[in-house]
Amino acid sequence: MKKLRFSCEVNSKLKDVVKAFDLPLFKKLAPPLVKMNILQFDGCLKGDEVKFSMNSFGIQQYWYGLILDDFISENEAYFIDVGKKLPWPLTAWHHKHGFKVTERATTEIIDELEFECNSKLMELVLVPLMIGYFSYRKIIYKKEFNV
């Protein structure tokens, strides 16, 4: 199982950032070069489901996820999604979306991933792709929340 952690500080209040994790933001966070078709997006609360198809280079695959848990307080929030049906080569997915108020009264967005593939080699191949994709997400986060 590979574990990766990414963080991005944005100049917005925690509750505003958490509230903005909705369908329009989800669409903006789609990976470049991947056409997504949203089949279901319930939200980011425990029990919600997210289902979509992805088409990349003519290959269509499906992703069904479940929000396993969520939490919000004045200084911290999170929601956790797990993969129920994943595209090849993924066999397991656990993603904690964390949010924390910083000392500067900004919000730190934290993505903690755990994923597994059908082979260790594929996990190693996916690591740089995940790094690239989550670096891309930082650009979107800053654009959305540093206004």
Give your account of this protein's structure:
- This protein is an alpha+beta fold and 147 residues long.
- It has a single domain (2-145), classed as Alpha-D-Glucose-1,6-Bisphosphate, Chain A, domain 4 (2-Layer Sandwich), CATH 3.30.530.
- 26% of the residues lie in helices and 48% in strands.
- It has three helices and seven strands.
- It has helices at residues 14-19, 23-28, 120-145; strands spanning 2-10, 35-41, 49-56, 59-72, 76-85, 90-101, 107-117.
- Strands 1-7-6-5-4-3-2 form a seven-stranded antiparallel sheet.
- The longest helix has 26 residues, at 120-145.
- The model has no long low-confidence stretch (mean pLDDT 96).
